[in-house]
Amino acid sequence: MRTSAGTYPVTRTAAVVCLDTLIRLRRGQRAPEPARRLTLPAGMTAPMGCDAVAIPADLGPELMARLPRVGCVYADGTHWWWLVPADSDYALRWPAAAGYSTGALLPDAPTAPDLVHRPAGTIPYTPPIPLYLALCRVTGTTPTWSEPLTA
């Protein structure tokens, strides 16, 4: 619709915010917990941010053998932590055996776990989908996208 002067009227529109932005904002609102953060080895960078997937220590060696590429892995007596890109839990329900840690924070760890695997290169990530599938296989869990839909 044009005005008599040949210009278009000014209209107000709402800003469009994508779901990724909303998730990041929600996570930013959480109160910070006193926690230990997994640190990257010298010379490594995390261009996509870092989260961690914790699994029981007895599953660690079996998962390591099933993965085509393994990033930084940390371990103590009870858990192994696998570094994955930030937001690797987006639209994905990890098996119950796993614990997902946003920001690679370890809230209950009295000491830092040891680095048990460092990949070649400068990128610390284990690809999350192969890790997820291997963990589902080892724990006998059906991947979420294979579950039947209900109305």
Structural features, described:
By secondary structure, this protein is of the alpha+beta class. The protein has 3 helices and 7 strands; from the N terminus they run αββαβββββα. It has helices spanning 19-29, 60-66, 128-139, and strands at 36-37, 50-56, 73-75, 79-85, 99-101, 105-106, 114-117. A 5-stranded antiparallel sheet has the order 5-2-4-3-7, with no helix packed on it. A hairpin with a 3-residue loop joins strand 3 (73-75) and strand 4 (79-85). It is globular, with a radius of gyration of 21 Å. 23% of the residues are buried. The model has no long low-confidence stretch (mean pLDDT 83).
Task: Write out key terms for the chains shown.
single chain; 151 residues; alpha+beta; two-stranded antiparallel ribbon
Which ranges are low-confidence, i.e. pLDDT below 50, for 5 or more consecutive residues? none
> What share of residues is helical?
10-25%
Class from helix and strand fractions: alpha+beta
Major sheet strand order:
5-2-4-3-7
Largest sheet: 5 strands, antiparallel
- How many β-strand stretches? 7
